Amino acid sequence: MELNKAKNIAIDICYRLQPFCTKLNIAGSIRRKKPEVKDIEICAVPIQTPVQEQDLFGAITQNLQIDLGFINTVNALGKIEKGSPAGRYCKILLPEGIALDLFIPDPDDYYRQFAIRTGSADYSFKVIAAGWRKIGWVGSDIGLRLEKDCIETKQTDGKSKWVCARNKNNKPPVWSSEEEFFKWINVPFIAPELRVL
Predict the structure, then answer these.
(1) Is it the case that residue 177 has pLDDT exceeding 70?
(2) Would you tell me which of 93, 103, 107, 196 could form a disulfide with 79, CB atoms 3.0–4.6 Å apart?
(3) In this structure, what DSSP letter does residue 129 have?
(4) 3-state secondary structure of 180
(5) What is the CATH number of domain 3-104?
C-alpha cells in the first residue's frame, strides 16, 4: 500500500485508540517513511486499572486489567487473526485489506519495543539487539534480562531462545524516551528513515 494511504489509516486507528492509552505511536515502515507499506505497526500501552481477585483459598491478589474501551476498540478495528487485545500482541486484518500489527509492551519496556518495532528488521537485530548484548543483556522469555541470569536453549526450528533462570526482577532501567534507550545501549540515535542496513 502507498505510504500516505497507510499513514492515514494508521493515524485514524491512533485517534480511535488514544483515549484508552497512556502511550501510543506509529512504528514500522510508516515511521521509516518507506514508499510502499506491507503492514501497519503500532505500539500501544493501554490504560490499566488495579483489580482485586480472590483465589480458591481466599487470598486476595491485585492484578492489572486492560481498559475495556481499549479491548472493544481493538476488536472493532477488523478481523483478529492472531493474539489478543488483552495480551502483548494482536494481528488484525483491517477492512482496507492491510494487516495491523499491534504491539502492547510492558509499560517499562515501551521505548525498547518502539525502537525494535520501528525496524528495519536487520537494523533491529544487527544494531539495536547487538547494542544490548554488548552490555550484557539478552531478550528473554520475560523481557530484557542480564545474560548471566539466563539460559540459552535451542528450539526445534534451530533458533535460540533465552530463558530467565534467576533474579527475574533484575530489570533494566525504565527509559523515558527512545533517545534515552539508545544512549543506554551505546548506539547513536538516528532518524527512523536512516535505520537500514
Answers:
(1) yes
(2) 93
(3) I
(4) helix
(5) 3.30.460
